[in-house]
Amino acid sequence: MHIGILTNHIIACLIFSKIQPGAKDKLKKVEGMAWDLFHLWDIPTEMAVQSHTYNAIILQAFATHDDALAQIAKLNPIVRIAFYQQEAQVKYKLSLSNFLHNDPIIDSIIDNQKQRECLCETVDLIELSTQLEHEFLNTIK
Fold first, then answer.
1. Cα(50)–Cα(58) distance, rounded to whole angstroms?
2. Dihedrals phi, psi of 48, to nearest 5 degrees
3. Which of 17, 41, 99, 129 has a CA that sits 20 to 30 A from residue 35's CA?
């Protein structure tokens, strides 16, 4: 799932409507939303790992009672998936390339893939999470 598909204002409002300045437990709500989005994003990886582990094609289903999350899942469905060892190559209905042709930002993303991978290996995710939490809480006060 690509964040670029969240440009639909109505869907974005449904997703983030729980995070209002006066709302209680804002951080818990953001954590829950992040967890939900992670699950959507992680489905292909889990299918690949389980398929490799059990030497069978394991297909996962996604069910939710959260209307906004269901709408997000429907925005960009997987149309094709190929498994190789423990990896999944996924083709979604939409990708950033559908929206940005010959764009310097996309070129930069592709050109700097190795640099981002190295950065991911060296970042202290717990510290980053703590910093983001503090920044978020200070922003919404």
1. 6
2. -65, -45
3. 99
